[in-house]
Amino acid sequence: MTYQRPSTVGELRASGWKDNSVKDELRANLIDRLRAGGTLFDGIVGYEDSVMPALERAILAGHDIVLLGERGQGKTRLIRRLVELLDDEIPVIEGSELNDSPFDPVSAYGKQLIALHGDDTRIEWIGRDRRYAEKLATPDTSVADLIGDVDPIKVAEGRYLADELTIHFGLVPRTNRGIVSINELPDLPTRIQVSLLNVLEERDVQVRGYTINLPIDVLLIASANPEDYTNRGRIITPLKDRFGSEIRTHYPSSIAQEIEIMNQEASPPPDAVTVDVPEFMREVIAEFTHAVRSSTHINQRSGVSVRFSIANLETMVASAVRRGLRTGASAAVPRISDLPAVAQSSMGRIEFEVFEEGRELEILRRLLAAAVLDVFRTYLAGFDFGFLIEAFEGGVLLETGDLTPDEELLDQVHNPPELTGLLTRLGVSEESPAHAASALEFALEGLHLTRRLNKTAGEANAMYGLG
């Protein structure tokens, strides 16, 4: 038998449906998830023991929330996932702009319909997507954007300015019985924050001198950068006090977490060639990000986003794909010679200290080299490189670059059988020319960084040798 949803207020009342506040609704659904066990939200990495417990406590407490953290820490993604804790559908008065509850409407429109039709008032059911609104706070944000303003068209139709029905409501009232997210809240001008406070705390709003009692039901969740970073504004004290919970976010605390996020978020490469990224090359990218985050040459107050790692992985893979296409190879495996492209593309995504002007690329190259050295020591400490050192005796030089074919690179060292042991040590199971070339370049760069080989780097190529 197909279940017929109630279509009038009377039918809804007879069904026993209970009208809960949005915070009670979120709390009830969270309780069900916690009792079921498992992960609250899939795809949120690194917050299991820090941010998520704090978020769960805030929802259980029924608090409005502010997420405080630097850019690229997943604040917006986490906020959007809260929509999953809303009910699949809820009933509203049909045609209501403010998602009016059939039992307790807040708008003049909803109250008039109930007064006129009573239990025969028509209702409709809305999904989660109509109960979430997001606004990026900017200095030019107006009261009309968030709260509302007089609609001149409605005035022209004959309504009075003192009539609530002349108002075109803004984002916050239209998300009644839902979640309102305001990103970078301190960027809102003070007068806009005061208007927001009036709606959320005093339950009234003035539009063009007309005071409206507006007891809307919303969960307000905002994001902000730490106060010592943003000098553009601040959250006014009364509004800040309105948030029951302040939750600090953070960057991935381990290389493994950074790699997991990279793997999850990076765009897939084109199908033109088969791409395989060895784990040690992924670790180089992750180590590079962590080195940048701890460098005194980088402005840490602005943060180094996780998107920095994701974009660098995509750039490295793209460089390998380009080599495969240019050389006619069917497989592409990233190599050390793909990393200069990573340094170049990183320039515009971080902020350097002022006194580093003109040295930005040099700094990134040094940090990238340090990352390679850390991974090299992790994987190949104590490995016997005698077979490689012997290949350079007699003044032999090896030339490589981002467009050097894999076979051509291997031929320069006569593709020694010891490369199989190197691949095994690096955790690479496939012994293709592309994988062998990647392992060889990694070993050569490590020997250079540990001062056992010399390297002369040009714009596109590099030369390794003993001299």
Can you put this structure into words, describing what you see?
With 467 residues, the chain is of the alpha/beta class. The chain folds into 2 domains: 9-248, 3-Layer(aba) Sandwich (Rossmann fold); 255-465, no CATH class. The chain contains 19 helices and 16 strands. The strands form 6 sheets. A 5-stranded parallel sheet has the order 4-7-10-1-11, covered by helices on one side. Strands 14-16-15 form a 3-stranded antiparallel sheet, covered by helices on one side. A two-stranded antiparallel sheet has the order 2-3. The termini are far apart.
CATH topology of the largest domain: Rossmann fold
Largest sheet: 5 strands, parallel
Distance between the termini: 85 Å
Structural class: alpha/beta
Helix proportion range: 40-55%
- Which oligomeric form is depicted? single chain
Shape: elongated
Poorly predicted spans = none
CATH class of the largest domain: Alpha Beta
- By CATH, the architecture of the largest domain is named 3-Layer(aba) Sandwich
CATH fourth-tier homologous superfamily of the largest domain = P-loop containing nucleotide triphosphate hydrolases
Order of adjacent strands in the largest pleated sheet: 4-7-10-1-11
Counting DSSP H or I runs of 4 or more residues, the number of helices is 19
Strand content: 5-15%
Q: What is the total number of structural domains?
A: 2
